[in-house]
Amino acid sequence: MEISELATRYQLHALSSPIPLAPPYRFASKTKLRQAAVLIPVIAKPDGLHIGLTQRPMHMRAHPGQISFPGGKVESSDINEAATALREAEEEIGLSQQNVTVLGQFPSHNTFTGFEITPIVGMVKQPFEPVLDPGEVADYFTVPLSFLRQQHNRHRLNVSRKGQNFPVFFIPYQNRFIWGATAAIIDLFCRHIFE
After folding, report:
1. What is the C-alpha separation between 105 and 131, in angstroms, rounded?
2. Which secondary-structure segment (H or E) carries 170?
3. How many beta carbons lie within 10 A of that of residue 149, not counting itself?
4. Of the candidates 8, 40, 111, 127, which lies 20 to 30 Å from 165 by C-alpha distance?
5. Crossing angle of helices 3-16/181-194, nearest 10°?
């Protein structure tokens, strides 16, 4: 699949069948959620399209060692969630904001840890050499979209928390384990584009 085909599929599906805001992607919270945004960077490589992901350092207080998209908390200086995601990607992995074409965004995803995350889909225009901020990112890697689109590579497990059942998504990939909000957003992205 080429970037142009993915962009067309994204736009057509956004118009014809919007993704529902129902579970597993939203759940009620009694506390005020902190606003955050992440970038789903779609990168063209010789073997096809890939999704860029980061691994958080072990010294982080929140989610140490977990795999995530580049992104973070919305700042008052950000004009919208896309601005947050682009700013954070530039700070965390050195992806220039001018090197990304924003396609759109998915419905926000509430987390158990008190965040409302807005995923922003962005096409990376030119290859780039990642420059990692060691305070926020331990590693950067990509996963082929051809792997992620296969439904048998995306898993779902129902768990109970405070008397409510919630799905937890996970994706084993090589020696990595993608789970939680990141895996749920990947599942949403793949269902939107391919199903």
Report:
1. 25
2. strand 164-173
3. 18
4. 40
5. 90
Cα dist. 141→119, 132, 164 in Å? 18, 11, 34
In the block, residue with structure tokens 């990509």: 142
Can you tell me the distance from the alpha carbon of 145 to that of 45, in angstroms, rounded to the nearest whole number? Answer: 11
Taking only the tens place, the pLDDT of each residue in 68-81 is 999 999 999 999 99
Asked if 112 and 24 touch (Cβ cutoff 8 Å), the reply is no
Kindly list the distances between the CA atom of residue 171 and the CA atoms of 148, 156, 178, in Å, as whole numbers in the listed order: 8, 9, 5
Which two structure tokens, joined as six digits, stand for 127?
A: 């290859």
- Residues in the chain, total: 195
What tens digit of pLDDT does each residue of 25-73 get?
Answer: 444 455 688 899 999 999 999 999 999 999 998 776 766 678 999 999 9
Q: How is residue 154 annotated by DSSP?
A: S
**Which residue shows structure tokens 């599906």?**
13
Residues paired with 124 in a beta bridge = 100
* Euclidean distance between CA atoms 23 and 26, whole angstroms: 5
Structure tokens at 40: 């789903």
**CATH number of the 3-17+32-142 domain:** 3.90.79.10
Q: Pick out the chain residues at pLDDT < 70.
A: 13-31, 60, 62-64
